[in-house]
Amino acid sequence: MTATADSTESAFLAGNNTLKSRLRRAERMRKVWALALIAPMFVFLMVSFVIPIVSLLKLSVEDLEVSKALPLTVEAFKAWDGEGFPPPEAMQVFAQELVVAEENKTLGSATRRLNYSLSGFKSMLKKTGRKAEDDLAGVPADQILDAFIAIDKDWGDPAYWRAIKDAVGPLSDYYALWALDRQRDADGDIVMRPSTQSIYVDVLLRTLEISVAVTLICFVLGLPIAYLLATLPTSRSNLLLILVLLPFWTSLLVRTTAWIVLLQNQGLINDTGIWLGLWNEPLELIRNRFGVYVAMVHILLPFMILPIFSVMKGINPWHMRAAESLGAHRWKAFLKVYLPQCLPGIGAGTLLVFILSLGYYITPALVGGPQDQMISFWIVENMSSTLNWGLAAALSMILLLLTLVFFFIYNRFVGFDKLRLG
Amino acid sequence: MAEVGQDRPSTDSTDFTVRFTDVQKTYDGEILVVKDLNLDIERGEFLTLLGPSGSGKTTTLLMLAGFETPTHGEIILEGQSLRSTPPHKRGIGMVFQNYALFPHMTVAENLAFPLQARRMAKNEQETKIKRALEMVELGAYGGRRPGQLSGGQQQRVALARALVFEPSLVLMDEPLGALDKKLREQMQIEIKHIHENLGVTVVYVTHDQSEALTMSNRIAVFNDGRIQQLASPEELYEKPQNAFVAQFIGENNRFAGVVKEQQGKQCKVALDSGDIVNALAVNIEGHGGRTSLSLRPEAIYLAPAPGACDNIFEARIEELIYMGDHTRVRVDVCGNNNFVIKVPRGASHVALDTGSKISVGWRSEDCRALDAA
Asked: Across the beta sheet with B72-77, what order do the strands follow?
């Protein structure tokens, strides 16, 4: 470099214009551009995906119905330690607020929430609300409890008072425990819910069981197909690939209902079997676990085949020959040399199928029986039928956490860097 | 085409490891990739199968390894027919073109693979792996994965893996094809030394004639599914038996002509330009038959003394190419303007100028009259 060039460079540096800052300036424009390009996508994802999910999941830990309907009562109950009965002053506040709430018809969601804690609470609270203006308003502190008991003798049980205290919110593990068939007893310890209300642990285990079974079946069926796809001459493997992809181009609902047509008692399979004399009574192929497995495996199989296929495609076919020339039988060569190299694809395929299975709803709902419904079914049930959004959110939270747990287990043992989806 | 150097092996032949008898191979039922192959591979020799791509050399190797089945004929290994022996029971070591190292195993695990397949004791395995890695000078690399090694190192690992279970026969399918020139030449010498030290029989496939000349005891030149000539490197270079071999091995000047006269080993050939050349009758069909003359560029004299050669012609210098240790002189002689003469540095006693006339000469015994292919 010449002397003049040297001096201009040092002049640059002297002018607080270091190489780094120049680089930053040069890069800034590109960064702005890049951000601008992803902005629509980002906004769309936030509005349609992240915000609804977060706000719904918030419901699983919120407990606001009672404090919205009876804010003053909640404030008054805070001073109470939960032992025995609340102080009479707090009861008076409660009585006052019941009168107001009855007038404004704002008690509804609070009664439903309290009824979750103790059944019978709803009707009791409604009755009390109706009579509040006549029988409770202005009753002195020393007679207030008796006035309550006069309306309904259950007010004499401290458990009902405690239930109000437990529901003051704003945060609570009430729904999360419910989703695991648990609740807190009078001492605040976590105990089992009564067995009539305990279904969600069973549902959770069933969801895992179905997902594991579907993943295994998909793996056993998919591995040979992937191997065939990867080793056939291109012209024939392309045809096979189209057959594998064909189900993707049909709606999930159509494929599921097609299985109903095939599997039902007067369906194609049963009619053909009886006509051929293979069996005399229609076989129970649907509304049971068998139907769920058949339909789910059919829909999820491509998700297993494609990642394994794409990894197999990249495996040097000479490796098998090398292993054989070194003295290994074909099967041993396959197990020791070929299969280990497929692991990234097998990992991706099983993870994909398993996680998709965890959230399956429509297929089990249509082809499964009552004992085959998975966790998503109960989320929908609580969301739209019983309107217990808190519980629905808690179940969703469990589903989400379960998915994340499997992601991390997978990452720990296989590693996302090895994941190959194709 | 005449079949030379493909004599039927006699039953009382020398100590052979492998014998191919009338082997044919076709993939599509129409074209024979290997035609009537008869070949004895001697114990301990380094035999190279040399030929252009599609000549059948790799198919021959794969049939020996067991990855392809002969359509016809028989292959015998150590006195046993290989017809129903699967590849993993043949006990043949093989080095593949792309190394075929198992990427999910370390170098040591790759080497342990053939030993585990043979249910060898753990400590014995370790001794053998250590010795094999030291043989290829990679003693410290046992814990690495193939992906962490350079091409040359991977090649050595592949070599060690094919040798670690001490097979008596090792097949190599263009093992140096992926290496650069310098490394390739170095590995050629190393493989040659390993062969000499271990005394194993090596069957080596390549399309690189200089590689074949450097390493082999014998070379089988393949073309069109047949062995064109099977001979030592010296014989192959100096005494090619047909036009294909002369053309394929080394550099070669060619003339086409008709045999005018034959007297024992001597013959006179009338070139298409009308000149008459004295040549050595090697592979001709007698008087009146067409022939091609083969002449090595280093066997030609510039401005020879009259009477020093029995062929002297007037030539015009077309081009001079300086190659360092020698100069390539391209001349137009006897109607062939692509006639190359190699002049070693400082060997020319006449001035060489493009466009000038010069006399060139060669001895009739260096000029081989071959088939007219």
From this structure: B32-42, B16-26, B72-77, B80-81
Through-space distance between the first and last CA atoms of chain B, rounded to whole angstroms:
8
How far is residue A9's CA from residue A17's CA, in Å, rounded to a whole number?
10
pLDDT at res. B333: 92
* Cα–Cα distance measured from residue A272 to residue A292, given in angstroms and rounded to the nearest whole number: 21
3-state secondary structure of B311: strand
Chosen from B63, B64, B94 to mutate, greatest number of chain A CBs within 10 A: B94
pTM: 0.78
The domain spans of chain B are 16-92+167-243, 251-370
pLDDT tens, residue by residue, B232-289: 999 999 999 999 999 999 899 999 999 998 888 889 999 988 899 999 999 888 788 8
Nearest to A327 among B97, B101, B165 (CB): B165
Confidence of residue A1 (pLDDT cuts 50, 70, 90): very low
Q: Is B146 on the interface with A (CB under 8 A)?
A: no
Chain A residues whose beta carbon lies within 8 Å of the beta carbon of residue B92: 325
CATH number of B251-370: 2.40.50.100
Between CA B245 and CA B313 the distance in angstroms is: 26
DSSP state of A249: G
- On the question of a cis peptide bond just before residue A170, with omega within 30 degrees of 0, the verdict is yes
The tens digit of pLDDT for each residue in A101-148 reads: 888 888 888 888 888 888 888 888 888 888 888 888 878 888 888 888
Domains of chain A: 3-49 (no CATH), 65-169 (no CATH), 200-418 (1.10.3720.10)
Task: Out of 3.30.1540.10, 3.30.200.20, 1.10.238.10, 3.40.50.300, select the CATH number for domain B16-92+167-243.
Answer: 3.40.50.300
- What average pLDDT values come out for chain B (373 residues) when binned by 10 residues? 42 73 93 94 95 93 94 93 92 92 95 95 94 92 93 93 94 90 91 93 94 94 94 94 92 92 89 90 86 92 86 92 90 91 81 88 92 78
